[in-house]
Amino acid sequence: MDARMAYDNLGAAVSDLEPRRATSYAADPPGRGPLAALWRRKVIFVVIFITILGAFIAALLVLPVQYMATGSVIVAEQEPGDNNSSAVWAQKAGDPADMESQLLIIGSSRVLKAAIASPGILELALQDCAASKGIGALLEKLGRHSGCDKLKEDADALVEFVRTRYSIGNVGRSRVIGISYQSTRPDIAQKMANALISAFLEDQRANLSSGRQHAADWLWAEVHRLETELRDDDGKIQEYKRKKGLARGTNALIDSERLTSLTQQLSTAEATRAEASARLKEITANKGKGLADSPAVLASRSVSDLKQQLTMIEMRLASARTTLGDRHPAMRELEQERDIAQRRLAAEVAGVAAAVKRNYEAANSLVASLKAKVEGAKTEVGDAMIDQGSIETLVHGVDMKRRQYSELYKRASELDADRRVLNGSTRLVGLAELPNVPYFPKKLPFLAAGLTLATLLGATAAILRDRFDKSLRGSAELAGLPGDAPCVELPHLRSARPRLFGMPARRDHALPLKVLIELAESDEAAQRALFEIYSSARIDEAKGSRIIAVTSPARGDGKTFLTLALAHFVATMGHRVLAVECDRASPCFESALDLEHGPGLLEALDATAPLRDCVTGTASRMLDALPLGASGKAAPTQIGKRIETVLKSTRDYDLVLLDCPPADALDARLLARQADSILLCARAGGCSAEEALATSEVLTASGGRLLGLVVNMAERDAPPFQQRLSRVTA
């Protein structure tokens, strides 16, 4: 009763978990992530990982140590204080194509031959070849020649030998070029790198400036010739000007400047005469009215002062007349003062009129004189223009020579500057030093590369193998089962043995059937799956299944294990169970249940022994077994045709489990017809989901009723840390 109550509690727990489990499968079937794929195919991953990493470690131990010596030169380096901005300098300083051409020149056969021709370099190349004889010997064993013997006679072969060991390239985006040599001996690497650097610098000094030097010499000769001709032509022009009197002023010829000056003076004189004429006409027009009121007279300061003085006297006289008599001495004195002022005013007005007339006459005389001078100057300027035309013809020829002289002088100067830049454009940055640290192989980067490559290739192989594996993995893939037939999973049971890298120490599927049954009784997931099958069978109910045929799509899917595990579970739940072994190809009930050898199903079918003598009790009080029996005796053609009489004699049992052959056998279909329902078992990683569904359809078409489908040996795909995370999240 205690066991029955324990399993009742287990059933309640399973019923609580069923909705959550179904939802998780529908949303995200387990075991589809890359980590789960790696965990499933961890054997492939570990094998490839160890193989590749071992190959790298072996290569690290076998490959010869290489040293690399590096020197550098700088191309198109500007000299201190040189602000040259010519096209050649711009090309040398910033054109990537020029940097590429320099790299090609350094690696050319001509420069390499010049480097090899240096004293002692040929012997170093032969020593380098001899030092790498180990690789050459391996190549000779593979049918290839090492090539060290013909280096002395064949210069081209020697160039190709050293070219493979030279490394030439610019340093980043700078104008610095690095020249390196790789060898098994550090002293050879240093000397060979320095030999190529010296050969390149010498080649640059010898070739870069020769063409520009010849061109500059010819241009300077032409410049000196034109300079002499210009000096002679300038002397001839000055002599002609001196003879013709074609002296120049500030802006033009002196005659032209004199004519301009006279014309300006004439304009000024005519303006002055016009002004004087206007004043004279005003005075002449105002003679009848009085000169004192004419504008020219009124403009005089003296006339204005006298008029003001006369006005003051008249005012004093009028004031005195009202108080004094006409004969009063003061009156007479004021009248005399008035008369004197009037006479002075009349004299001043007459002087102003005379001055205006004189100014007019002087201006008129000046205009006439200047007109005569202007006419004379015009004649002189006309003659000078004729002479100037002759001079301009001579000057035009001189200007052409002068422009030619300027262009040639500029070009010669540029060539000299370019030649100086080219001579100093390639400079030594530093010679190669003796290397102390091996260049190849470097242990840490080499091992890191091997570890990375091994991990990537191992993971890729494992994931691809898992991706292209279409075999059944879990119950979530069997969504096409007819009716409400459940689909459960029996986990891959593993022994409690020490493990290496998470893998079992032995193949768990090779465990004895007896051990697997014991493991299933202690595994919670297996017990829950068996409880779900037990609940679906509805034993002791009118529409329940009393006789269940257990079969599988192929042999080795674990149908016998499922039969016995389910029999133990139902027996533990308090039901009487009979397990019948119907698979003639691989009988194993006796070893799995510790039964004594004796009569069995075959004897019961042949009626050579009564059924009660063929049925054997097991360690479980509620579980009996009917093994195949009489293994040495020829079995009947089909068990399914004759088992009906045996099954009628088992009415005392609550559940009868038939361990049938695989579903492709005719006997399995016959047995399925005799049973109330069919329990189909498919091993994970065996057949595909489509094959399992097709097998269920075939069995249903044969007249059987599908109770459910069990995925046996289902992997717990999630790695251990994901399983723990899932449990914490749940």
Provide keyphrases for this structure:
single chain; alpha/beta; 4-stranded antiparallel sheet; 26 helices; 12 strands; disordered N terminus
Instruction: Describe the main β-sheet briefly.
Output: 8 strands, mixed
Distance between the termini: 32 Å
| Largest sheet: spatial strand order | 5-12-11-6-10-7-9-8
The gross shape turns out to be: elongated
Overall mean pLDDT: 77
Our count of helices gives 26
Structural class: alpha/beta
Percent helix among the residues?
A: 55-70%
Low-confidence spans: 1-30, 90-94, 500-509
Structure, described:
- The protein has helices at residues 2-27, 34-40, 42-62, 87-94, 96-106, 109-116, 121-131, 133-141, 155-163, 186-207, 210-244, 254-285, 295-298, 301-323, 329-425, 443-467, 513-522, 524-537, 559-572, 589-593, 601-606, 611-614, 644-648, 666-674, 689-701, 720-729; strands at 67-75, 166-170, 176-183, 426-430, 487-491, 547-551, 577-581, 616-617, 623-626, 655-659, 677-683, 706-714.
- The protein is α/β, with parallel strands linked by helices and 730 residues long.
- The strands form 2 sheets. The chain has an 8-stranded mixed β-sheet with strand order 5-12-11-6-10-7-9-8, with helices on both faces.
